[in-house]
Design goal:
Layout (H helix, E strand, L loop, with lengths): L2 E8 L2 E7 L7 E7 L7 H4 L22 H23 L3 E8 L1 H10 L2 H4 L2 E5 L8 H6 L6
Parallel strand pairs: 1-4, 4-5
Antiparallel strand pairs: 1-2, 2-3
Helix pairs in contact: 2-3
């Protein structure tokens, strides 16, 4: 049976809810976790043997995200889109709402197929992944 799916995600977790009808309550159907997106760069990559690291103010790239962390976010967006694409192909989704932190929303857009993108009814650039079901629902249209 085709349903309405709502994806609520940030760079390390995605919750997928379904609703049978536009005014139905939401039911959580999938949860995906990607803790690597929250790890420190040093935990994701290690220095090569014998390689020195500079010290001092220039040794930190303050305000810029590490390449390794960004790559993990891209990997998770691709994994999430693969999950959604499988559901689309099997006919489980007929409409899709995407609620995600703004930066991750962009990664989702880049990784989803054209066919999946056509099912997107609305995108909401908010980080609600850790919020309650009632709070998530309050950010969605009354009729999905």
């Amino acid at each position: 049976m085709s349903t309405i799916w709502i994806v609520v995600a940030d760079s390390s977790r995605a919750r997928v809810f379904s609703a049978e009808k536009p005014d139905s309550s939401l039911k959580e159907v999938h949860t995906l976790a990607h803790p690597e997106a929250r790890m420190h760069e040093g935990d994701l990559v290690s220095d090569k043997s014998g390689r020195g690291r500079s010290q001092g103010p220039a040794s930190h790239d303050v305000g810029h995200e590490s390449a390794a962390r960004q790559e993990e976010k891209v990997n998770f967006a691709a994994r999430l889109c693969d999950t959604l694409e499988s559901a689309r192909v099997s006919g489980k989704i007929n409409r899709l709402y995407v609620v995600a932190e703004p930066g991750f929303l962009g990664l989702i857009r880049k990784n989803c197929s054209g066919a999946l993108h056509q099912l997107v009814e609305s995108e909401i650039p908010k980080n609600l992944a850790a919020h309650s079901l009632d709070d998530i629902r309050s950010h969605l249209p009354a009729r999905l």
